[in-house]
Write a structure and sequence with these properties.
Bound molecules: flavin-adenine dinucleotide
Helix content: 25-40%
Largest sheet: 9 strands, mixed
Structural class: alpha/beta
Strand content: 15-25%
Shape: globular
Number of strands: 19
Radius of gyration: 21 Å
Length: 427
């Protein structure tokens, strides 16, 4: 089956911007037109700064135009662990910031009237086994201790909300929601352009060079001179190119989607626009899109053959959860997620006027949007101590990342076996 991205097929009018041709000058250059870069450009342009965004492919070419569209609160690590890793002060700020990231995103969508099917139906984390319930209970207690009301659903209530009795209970988080990822990326881009940002597509940055008082960025057909650079290429770039060795592990996440399901079936599953990601190590995440297509995602593979197997495993998984689904599988696609060693995003300032942000660990829809604003704040003079994440001088290295990358096919193959029930459950 050829790979076909649901969001590209349903995003509507394409956003065509020019290719950088010749020599230009600006105040701030943003490399990468995903949510991080587009949000940074929007917030800078709104403050009257001159901004140019350079994108290697099309707007939203990376994870931002390919993801599950689940707007999720929090970081990959639970709140207590974040505070343990970052220390109580910074940790507390990071937890509050990431917990409020969906509020920030939905307010931004509203303010700029971005037509992206944004809906706040909540986020469910269903427990794949009874042994996962205490994990959810602890998560709920940690958020409650910070004033956030989550609730634990019984097995029956979970079945009622999801329309499957495959799970033993679930954690409901009202802060979450969903959107059309590519419409959202294009909407952010249009808002940034209305505010004055200039965007260029098919203009991959091949080199970032220091000049006397700023930077020079080279692209195949042009160059950009600027006073500051925000480099936000996430899993599609290579922060290791900054000379510190490996610091992210890019992994594939893949999805499959059906044609719109019959109205009667839609009414009985994933009630009230809820989206879900379960508690398995290689988790499945699923939702209905606004037209009623069933969309499910999970861990993928680097090779096309490996991805084809992962697509087949997802289809099996979907039918095991919802046997009544019409198996009209029309879409299958994937994208890269950037993992970091401690599962926390990194904000890096290797030199004054050069900023990097990456490593959302599969939680970037709301978080990348919010971090774009943080990058804008920093370039507009925010003090290091006022930022919600530690500002690193160098990316935190992850020397094992290349070795782990080699092991990924094995791990993914094992996960596929576990999916089929050939081997014992992973947790
Ligand atoms: C399949 C999948 C499902 C996901 N599901 C969810 C989800 O449901 N919820 C959630 O919260 N998160 C999800 N994520 C994660 C989320 O999509 C990302 O964290 C987020 O989009 C990252 O945004 P970004 O702007 O940092 O990076 P990206 O969107 O990846 O953007 C980086 C951009 O940089 C460009 N680039 C790279 N190199 C260069 C260069 N040299 N010059 C110019 N441009 C360059 C790339 O083309 C790309 O457009 C998912 C990710 C994937 C892949």
């Amino acid at each position: 089956m050829n790979e076909s991205n649901l969001w590209k097929r349903t995003a509507g009018e394409e956003l065509v911007v020019p290719v950088l041709d010749g020599s230009r000058e600006t105040e701030i250059a943003v490399v990468g037109a995903g949510y991080t870069g587009l949000s940074a450009a929007l917030h800078l342009a709104e403050r009257g700064r001159r901004v140019v965004v350079l994108e290697a492919g099309e707007i939203g070419e990376g994870a931002s135009g390919r993801n599950g569209g689940q707007v999720l609160p929090g970081l990959k690590q639970d709140p207590d662990m974040v505070e343990r890793i970052l220390g109580p002060g910074t940790g507390r700020r990071a937890v509050a910031f990431a917990g409020a990231a969906p509020d920030f995103l939905f307010a931004l969508v509203e303010r700029h009237r971005i037509a992206c099917d944004a809906r706040r139906g909540g986020w469910l984390q269903p427990a794949a086994s009874a042994r996962h319930l205490p994990v959810l209970e602890r998560r709920m207690a940690q958020w409650r201790a910070r004033g956030v009301e989550l609730s634990l659903l019984s097995r029956g209530e979970t079945a009622e909300r999801l329309g499957t009795d495959a799970y033993r209970g679930a954690l409901f988080d009202p802060r979450g929601g969903s959107l059309h990822p590519l419409r959202y990326a294009r909407g952010l881009a249009r808002a940034a352009m209305r505010a004055g940002a200039r965007l260029f597509r098919r203009s991959p940055v091949r080199g970032v060079h220091r000049t006397g008082d700023g930077w020079r960025l080279a692209t195949p057909r042009g160059e950009l001179r600027c006073g500051a650079v925000i480099c936000v290429t996430n899993a599609y770039g290579d922060p290791a190119a900054m000379g510190v060795g490996p610091c992210i592990l890019p992994v594939w996440s893949v999805q499959v989607a059906t044609d719109p399901q019959p109205p009667a079936l839609r009414a009985g599953i994933l009630r009230d626009g809820i989206c879900a990601s379960d508690t398995r190590r290689f988790l499945s995440y699923f939702r209905l899109d606004p037209d009623g297509r069933f969309v499910i995602g999970g861990r993928g593979a680097t090779s096309a053959r490996g991805r084809a197997r992962a697509f087949a495993a997802l289809r099996r998984r979907a039918l095991a959860l919802f046997p009544e689904l019409e198996p009209s599988w029309r879409f299958a696609w994937g994208g890269l997620v950037a993992l970091t060693e401690n599962r926390l995003p990194q904000l890096v300032e290797p030199a004054p006027g050069l900023l990097l942000a990456f490593g959302y660990n599969g939680r970037g829809v709301a978080l990348a949007t919010a971090i774009g604003r943080v990058l804008a704040d920093r370039l507009c003079g925010a003090e290091e101590g006022d930022l919600p994440l530690p500002l690193l001088r160098r990316p935190r290295p992850w020397p094992l990342a290349p070795w782990l990358r080699l092991q990924l096919p094995l791990a993914t193959g094992l996960a596929a076996l576990l999916e089929r029930g050939v081997a014992p459950r992973e947790r």
